[in-house]
């Protein structure tokens, strides 16, 4: 089942959180000269037009990136991410939004590598076109989870693996944990990040328990809720679970999350969280 299209949600509060964390991890990896691999298991289309029918239909970006875009002073933790957003919108009007692969494309260096997979028949060609002239990138219409078995460890022995499934199938909650275990078996020093939506809190608790039970250490949880937990339909929060985070990430997110919360949720509902699921 592939009915999910990220174009309906691009630039929403969950993307802002995910792409902030993604950009900070990439910037930390760039502090060493040695190249690294960026592996995006669920890439999406790469670029989103916020004035498209899909974006306009939900208007989610208006309560996400549009709120950050309007701010005159940004915390330094947001600069790498927002510089890419600005580059896509050089005339000063917010029209385009970078998905995770495009953000990586702009932030990575010439000697770094990207492996991007996307299964959707409409989004895959868009992604491939976006990277057609980028020799650093391998773009494939293949199962993202499979890459964690077949592409790791990277030659450079440095890497960041982003897992961002749509969770339209409940099996994704278990598949991300299995994916991490498979990747970790082959490449225990890599940084792995799992994005998750909070629709039913119980599903996230189960996923966190399963991760704890793997015996893997250094697992950091970062979350931004825009509403209190609820058993009604709809996403109330989203988060990133990061395995082997760069040492600065915990503090960086503690610095920036209150600002993001205030900016994205002016009504003040919800919460933020930066907590170790398993410490070192
Ligand atoms: N990571 C993207 C970003 O931040 O811009 C958004 C990705 S979106 C949440 C999830 C994507 O995963 C969808 O485009 C969907 O078609 C794709 N997908 C679903 N199952 C997949 C699989 N097993 N392997 C690769 N891609 C998959």
TrEMBL record:
<dbReference type="InterPro" id="IPR029063">
    <property type="entry name" value="SAM-dependent_MTases_sf"/>
</dbReference>
<protein>
    <recommendedName>
        <fullName>Ribosomal RNA large subunit methyltransferase J</fullName>
        <ecNumber>2.1.1.266</ecNumber>
    </recommendedName>
</protein>
<feature type="binding site">
    <location>
        <position position="164"/>
    </location>
    <ligand>
        <name>S-adenosyl-L-methionine</name>
    </ligand>
</feature>
<keyword id="KW-0808">Transferase</keyword>
<keyword id="KW-0949">S-adenosyl-L-methionine</keyword>
<comment type="function">
    <text>Specifically methylates the adenine in position 2030 of 23S rRNA.</text>
</comment>
<dbReference type="InterPro" id="IPR002052">
    <property type="entry name" value="DNA_methylase_N6_adenine_CS"/>
</dbReference>
<dbReference type="GO" id="GO:0036307">
    <property type="term" value="F:23S rRNA (adenine(2030)-N(6))-methyltransferase activity"/>
</dbReference>
<feature type="active site" description="Proton acceptor">
    <location>
        <position position="164"/>
    </location>
</feature>
<feature type="binding site">
    <location>
        <begin position="143"/>
        <end position="144"/>
    </location>
    <ligand>
        <name>S-adenosyl-L-methionine</name>
    </ligand>
</feature>
<dbReference type="InterPro" id="IPR007473">
    <property type="entry name" value="RlmJ"/>
</dbReference>
<comment type="subunit">
    <text>Monomer.</text>
</comment>
<feature type="binding site">
    <location>
        <position position="19"/>
    </location>
    <ligand>
        <name>S-adenosyl-L-methionine</name>
    </ligand>
</feature>
<feature type="binding site">
    <location>
        <position position="100"/>
    </location>
    <ligand>
        <name>S-adenosyl-L-methionine</name>
    </ligand>
</feature>
<feature type="binding site">
    <location>
        <position position="118"/>
    </location>
    <ligand>
        <name>S-adenosyl-L-methionine</name>
    </ligand>
</feature>
<comment type="similarity">
    <text>Belongs to the RlmJ family.</text>
</comment>
<feature type="site" description="Interaction with substrate rRNA">
    <location>
        <position position="4"/>
    </location>
</feature>
<keyword id="KW-0694">RNA-binding</keyword>
<keyword id="KW-0489">Methyltransferase</keyword>
<keyword id="KW-0698">rRNA processing</keyword>
<feature type="binding site">
    <location>
        <position position="42"/>
    </location>
    <ligand>
        <name>S-adenosyl-L-methionine</name>
    </ligand>
</feature>
<dbReference type="Pfam" id="PF04378">
    <property type="entry name" value="RsmJ"/>
</dbReference>
């Amino acid at each position: 089942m592939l009915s999910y299209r990220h174009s309906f949600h691009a630039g929403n509060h969950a993307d802002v959180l995910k792409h902030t964390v993604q950009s900070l991890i990439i910037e930390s990896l760039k502090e060493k000269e040695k190249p690294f691999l960026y592996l995006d298991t669920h890439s999406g289309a790469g670029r989103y037009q916020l004035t498209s029918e899909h974006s306009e239909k939900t208007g989610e970006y208006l309560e996400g990136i549009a709120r950050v875009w309007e701010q005159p002073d940004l915390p330094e933790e947001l600069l790498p991410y927002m510089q890419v957003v600005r580059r896509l919108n050089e005339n000063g009007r917010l029209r385009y939004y970078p998905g995770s692969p495009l953000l990586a494309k702009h932030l990575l260096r010439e000697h770094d590598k990207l492996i991007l997979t996307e299964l959707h028949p409409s989004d895959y060609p868009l992604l491939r076109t976006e990277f057609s002239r980028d020799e650093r990138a391998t773009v494939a219409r293949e199962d993202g989870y499979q890459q964690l078995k077949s592409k790791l460890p990277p030659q450079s022995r440095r890497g960041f693996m982003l897992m961002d499934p749509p969770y339209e199938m409940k099996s994704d909650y278990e598949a991300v944990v299995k994916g991490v275990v498979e990747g970790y078996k082959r490449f225990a020093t890599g940084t792995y990040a799992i994005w998750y939506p909070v629709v039913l809190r119980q599903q996230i608790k189960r996923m966190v328990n399963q991760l704890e039970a793997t015996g893997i250490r250094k697992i950091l949880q970062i979350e931004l809720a825009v509403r209190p937990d609820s058993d009604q339909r709809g996403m109330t929060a989203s988060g990133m679970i990061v395995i082997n985070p760069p040492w600065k990430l915990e503090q960086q997110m503690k610095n920036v999350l209150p600002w993001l919360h205030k900016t994205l949720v002016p009504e003040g509902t919800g919460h933020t969280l930066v907590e170790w699921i398993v410490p070192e």
